[in-house]
Design a protein that fits this description.
Layout: E1 8-12, H1 17-28, E2 32-37, H2 40-50, E3 55-58, H3 64-78, E4 83-86, H4 101-129, E5 133-137, H5 150-171, E6 176-182, H6 206-214, H7 220-232, E7 237-240, H8 242-253, H9 255-270
Parallel strand pairs: 1-2, 1-4, 2-3, 4-5, 5-6, 6-7
Helix pairs in contact: 1-2, 1-7, 3-4, 4-5, 8-9
Length: 274
């Protein structure tokens, strides 16, 4: 194994949105990035945008063996793993009684097992090195209730629990762990809707609903820059943007108020159902 001078980062879901912006921001700072995504054409395009030593990988984060093999190959090539961004994710939304078990399994497989696979592959490598930073993408929906997005909230709460617990376990062994919890960010996810094959009849309009609750979507490049700044401070739970941080803190002090706002937002969104 050759110890490279350049820091390295492996980014899942790097073909679009937050992952793409992170990959580009990291590459611009001199980091060797691997952009891994289910959508290989998108990953390749981002690697070209990053230029330099960036590479791409076709990867389904639901496949634990493929995640392990992909990360190990990247480390064998570059000699080190500074950052593991477990960022790939999907959204599934609607009324709980309209979502059959396959929908819950789908989102748990991607948003929770996908993150866990990255952690289980990267953590031993980082322990051996004695350094490294695992960065899991959850959401503001991982820190409070997200009615009509309950499957999503379920997975994101689990990612927060995984990350904040592992952070303490890993600290004395040289490995950092952070979890990113943004409010709405301007990415294709806001308009992607539910996977068609799940047959979920009605779903809230994510963009409208989240904007009403937490303000307009946050520009994705600003989000990536703010994440990297927070990582340099080794922030544990990275809540973005500032107004979401304020809402999160107020919500912890006044949970009844959060519930009241949620009830009114749900009633308003349901009124759009035809
Ligand atoms: N956009 C937001 O408002 C927002 C807010 C909070 C948290 N997040 C989280 O940020 C992360 C990135 O989301 P985004 O907004 O950039 O979405 P996006 O849809 O723009 O990008 C997600 C990427 O993940 C990839 N992906 C999906 N399933 C995959 C799989 N099984 N294996 C590998 N790659 C897969 C997609 O191909 C896509 O390139 C997600 O975890 C999401 O839940 C997004």
């Amino acid at each position: 194994m050759v110890m490279a001078a350049m820091p390295t980062a492996f980014v899942t879901g790097g073909g679009s949105g937050i992952g793409r912006a992170l990959a580009k921001a990291l590459a611009a700072r001199g980091t060797t990035v691997c952009i891994a995504d289910l959508n290989v054409a998108a990953a390749e395009a981002v690697a070209r945008e990053c230029g330099g030593s960036a590479s791409s990988l076709a990867l389904d984060v639901r496949d634990a063996d493929a995640v392990k093999t992909g990360i190990e190959a990247f480390v064998a090539e570059n000699g080190r793993l500074d950052y593991m961004f477990n960022n790939a994710g999907i959204g599934i939304a609607g009324e709980v009684d309209d979502i059959a078990l396959p929908g819950w399994q789908r989102i748990v497989d991607v948003n929770l097992y996908g993150v866990l696979h990255g952690v289980l592959a990267a953590y031993p490598i980082m322990l051996k090195q004695g350094f490294g930073h695992i960065v899991n993408t959850a959401s503001l929906a991982g820190l409070g209730p997200a009615p009509l997005f309950t499957p999503y909230a379920l997975t994101k709460h689990a990612v927060v629990g995984l990350s904040t617990s592992l952070r303490i376990e890993a600290a004395s062994r040289g490995v950092r762990v952070s979890v990113v919890c943004p409010a709405a960010v301007e990415t294709p996810l806001l308009d992607s809707g539910n996977p068609g094959d799940l047959g979920i009849g009605w779903a809230p309009d994510a963009r409208r609903f989240l904007t009403a609750l937490a303000g307009p979507p946050y520009p994705v490049e600003t989000c990536a820059d703010d994440i990297l700044a927070a990582l340099s401070r080794n922030t544990s739970v990275i809540v973005l943007p500032g107004r979401a941080r304020l809402a999160w803190r107020l919500g912890r002090l006044f949970p009844a108020l959060v519930e009241k706002i949620g009830l009114s937002a749900v009633a308003k969104e349901r009124s759009t159902r035809v």
